[in-house]
Amino acid sequence: MRDVREVLAALSCCASVELSPSGYLQAAIQSADGIVLVPGLDGLATIPESIAAIRHKRPQLAIVVAIRDAGDSELDALILAGASDFVSLPASVSEWRVRLHRALHTAAAPCRSEPVPEEEPRIRGFVHGSKACAAIAARLPTLARCDASVLITGETGTGKEVCAQAIHYLSMRADRPWVAVNCGAIPVELVENELFGHVKGAYTHAHSACPGLVREAEGGTLFLDDVDCLPLSAQAKLLRFLQEREYRPVGSNTVHHADLRVIAASNCNLCTLAQSGGFRQDLYYRLNVLNITLPPLRQRPEDVPILARHFAAHFAREFGRAPASFAYGALERLLRHDWPGNVRELKHVIERAVLLSSGQVLMAEDIEIEPASPDLPLPRSFDLAADSFRAAKQRVVEDFERGYVEHLLAAHAGNVTHAAMAAKKDRRAFFELMRKHRIEPKRFRAFESQLT
Ligand SMILES: Nc1ncnc2c1ncn2[C@@H]1O[C@H](COP(=O)(O)OP(=O)(O)OP(=O)(O)O)[C@@H](O)[C@H]1O
């Protein structure tokens, strides 16, 4: 912890905080004018107790904890005791300065002290039946209490965005914006522009100023989905932003201050990617302060019937139909599949089943599972004579959607923004279609480079 002492000595606002292992907490309460820093000189074991004691005396105080290699349970204990934020060590002087300044000047620290009831709708929105997901659901209110960055990993469709949204709406930032962006969908050359905005005249086609996503998320939460897709140049800018909480729109000389929480998600193992040089290690540490790993659906079969019933009720309501139940054979079919597209795939299968079923009980033959070949979906043949009108129409619509999206992506070399603009759909809706049909834009980027 020598580096912490040196850093603190360099910070005038904390000159009076004592760092002796036994006496510094009390000194900090009395002298630091609204901030307590807990550097963990004796390790983290006794820190939650100390924080709880401080919280008891000063409920509004922002408490920033310095951590290094802390485990989930240690971090959860710190948050439950009342920690508002964390600084991952080693941290630069400027990062300390920003965090301490932020803690000192945040009128009401965005820390939620009261427990969240289990029937809270946002927790219920994360539907689960398995032990693994029950443990994750139980952590969501804990993670929502503090303001540190969260990294959520798991295969596509496992519910990363559902968890991130739950954290936002359970937090003190709930009445401020929730802004989600898919980093893989932003063309490389536009990442900085999308995140930080630009001023009028910043470049040839910048006819008006654009605020950027960071500005849009001010006060709330910015969700960076597929964060591993950020090009290295953008990773450097994001890192600087996370450290300084300041940014400059493209073409502007004015530095803006941002107050928001960042939650990032990735389908790949970001730690391994960082070790192999595919992702900045320092950025990985800044994002991965708190962590959630969502298991794939095939590893939590207990969730399948519960999610299936949840989606069946949801789509019955949406289509104005009576609630449907499942025949034994239908559930068996669902349980035999290994769900490469995870919960998203299950949701679409149930949507189709509810739409196509003729009765109130979903039968095995209503459960249509596509062949597992996400990159090369086969055009499905259908027998007009044997299919009901509704079934035939549904197939044609789905085949049309897939073909249309693929055609536009091929025409725009995998650039999702341009393809969505050509379709006159917003990028999010276009992206949802891509995910529904498990279409990877990368496939079309490679296609272009083969051609040129
Ligand atoms: N536990 C859950 N309860 C209810 N709905 C869920 C759950 N998990 C996922 N879903 C639904 O499945 C779909 C995919 O979920 P989500 O977008 O959160 O996945 P993701 O892991 O973020 O996927 P991607 O990596 O492709 O971005 C959404 O429609 C979401 O509502």
TrEMBL record:
Superkingdom of origin: Bacteria
GO biological process: regulation of DNA-templated transcription
Entry keyword Heme: no
Annotated PROSITE patterns: SIGMA54_INTERACT_3, SIGMA54_INTERACT_4
Signal peptide: none
InterPro entries registered for this protein in UniProt: AAA+_ATPase, AAA_lid_NorR, CheY-like_superfamily, Homeodomain-like_sf, P-loop_NTPase, Sigma_54_int, Sigma_54_int_dom_CS
Domain Sigma-54 factor interaction: 126-355
GO MF term list: ATP binding; DNA binding
Record keywords: Activator, ATP-binding, DNA-binding, Nucleotide-binding, Transcription, Transcription regulation
Protein name, entry field: AAA domain family protein
Lineage of the species this protein comes from: Bacteria, Pseudomonadati, Pseudomonadota, Gammaproteobacteria, Lysobacterales
